[in-house]
Structures are given as structure tokens and as C-alpha cells.
Design brief:
This protein is an all-beta fold. The chain has one helix spanning 238-243, and strands at residues 13-15, 27-36, 53-59, 66-68, 71-72, 78-84, 89-97, 105-113, 127-130, 133-138, 141-143, 146-155, 158-159, 172-177, 185-189, 197-203, 208-218, 221-233. The protein starts with 12 loop residues before the first strand and ends in a 10-residue tail after the last helix.
């Protein structure tokens, strides 16, 4: 299975230098340009999930994940967004785009942020609690096969059934492989149900540890739940089943 998001270029486009504050706590802007291989800025994009570009930023150890939507200057092709780093470390900046008339691509670059850096070693966890919400991720990842992951959202011990659509769906799941932060193929299975369950079809390219981030909207606020799962080898026959798996799922999240 091919992996996505580990390079700053494809055979069509490239991600330019990412400019951002150089140290933690400093207020400023994050900016970058997507250009063709001959250096011309790309200024025309197709929309995916209600946006022309999805910016995902995460520290290399999996901490401090953010999913944002910068603003494009149509004259220069420069994307910008106000930005402050919460902590020092090495970060991976992902841009998920579809240039007009082209294929959808995920490009990435690393950015160094100065300061005292205390890396964390992520351990497997399938539950996340914050702001009174509890989210549990059910299901497993299997190397080389497709599996179903189900996020179950609760509040105060009760199921949440009033989730709100965010970027056209009730939930968006980003999964990154620990080690190279390869970007996984995750497809939302939009069942048209506003909770408590949000289902996804996931494909893990290899065994290993994966960092997962679920964005969902409740009470008008976009919230992020974080999980860590280990992918085991797919059971015999799972790959053949996966080849015949047909879904009307959309790209990525």
C-alpha cells in the first residue's frame, strides 16, 4: 500500500518553505506557498470538505495536533494564518489540497521550534476525555487491510445525539504512522446520524503504532479527541475481503 504525506513534493506540485514564529509562545503568522515544479504559485484549487486547503500540524512525538484552514491570497498564492506554538520541538506541517484540474495531494515539511523540548512516548489509548465529553474509539487497525473504526461520543455518561456537521461531516479522523508520520487513508462513512457513533473505514499500510485525531463539533465548538492504536497483521483472508470492499466514502478524513 502506498503511503501519503511524507514528502514535500509530488510529480506535479511542491510545498514551499513554511514561515512561522521561531520559538514557543511567540505570536505571529504561519505562511507558505504551494507551487508547480517550475516555481509558479498555485492559485486555483478545488474544494474538499468545504475548504480549498486543510492544514494539519503535529509535533513529531504526536503532541499538539491542530487542523486549521488558512486564507489564500489569490494574487500571490501565499496561504497565511495567525499562529503561536504552544511548545518547542520538531513539527510536521501537512497541507491537504487539490490543485484545480489535478489530483488530491498531501504535502508536508518539518519546522523547528526553539525552546526546552520534552518529548513524550505515546502509549496505546482508545479513550479521550475533555470539556465534559468522553470519546471512545472502538475497532482495530490491521496492516494491509481495511477495518472499521467507530468513535462513540458521550457527555456526562450519556450518549451524545446532537453532533453538528463540521466540514460537511459529523467527524473527521486523521491518522499518522509513528516514525515517519505517513498520512493514512481514512474514509468517513457518513451514516447521516448525528451521534453517538461516527464510523470510519481505515487502511493501515504496515504494522506499528498510529496516532489518531478525531475532530467533531458539539455545542458550536470544534473539539479534538486523540488516540493511539497499534496495527497488527491482518488475519488471513482479510486482504482478499478488502479488495472487494466497496464504499462510497470520501477522500481522507
Amino acid at each position: 500500500m502506498t503511503v501519503n504525506g511524507t514528502a514535500l513534493s509530488t510529480d506535479q506540485v511542491q510545498l514551499g518553505v513554511v514561515r512561522a514564529p521561531s520559538k514557543a509562545g511567540e505570536t505571529g503568522e504561519l505562511s507558505f506557498t504551494v507551487s508547480t515544479l517550475d516555481g509558479r504559485p498555485v492559485t486555483q484549487y478545488e474544494e474538499a470538505h468545504d475548504q480549498r486547503l486543510h492544514l494539519m500540524v503535529v509535533r513529531n512525538d504526536g503532541e499538539y495536533f491542530r487542523h486549521r484552514h488558512p486564507v489564500l491570497d489569490p494574487e500571490t498564492g501565499v496561504w497565511t494564518i495567525p499562529w503561536t506554538w504552544e511548545a518547542a520541538g520538531t513539527y510536521r506541517v501537512f497541507t491537504d489540497v487539490t490543485p484545480a484540474g489535478g489530483e488530491s495531494v498531501t504535502l508536508s515539511r518539518t519546522v523547528e521550534v526553539a525552546g526546552d523540548y520534552q518529548p513524550r512516548d505515546p502509549e496505546p489509548v482508545a479513550k479521550h476525555a475533555a470539556d465534559g465529553y468522553e470519546v471512545t474509539l472502538e475497532g482495530e487497525l490491521a496492516a494491509g487491510a481495511g477495518t472499521i473504526l467507530t468513535a462513540r461520543v458521550g457527555r456526562g455518561g450519556e450518549p451524545v445525539t446532537d453532533l453538528e456537521r463540521y466540514l460537511g461531516s459529523f467527524g473527521h479522523l486523521v491518522a499518522l504512522r509513528q516514525g515517519d508520520l505517513a498520512y493514512l487513508h481514512i474514509h468517513a462513512l457518513d451514516d447521516g446520524i448525528s451521534g453517538p457513533e461516527i464510523r470510519f473505514h481505515a487502511e493501515a499500510p504496515t504494522t506499528g503504532r498510529y496516532l489518531l485525531y478525531l475532530d467533531y463539533q458539539a455545542e458550536g465548538v470544534v473539539r479534538t479527541a486523540r488516540f493511539v492504536l497499534d496495527a497488527a497483521l491482518a488475519a488471513p483472508g482479510a486482504r482478499e475481503h478488502h479488495e472487494h470492499h466497496v464504499t462510497h466514502a470520501d477522500h481522507h478524513h
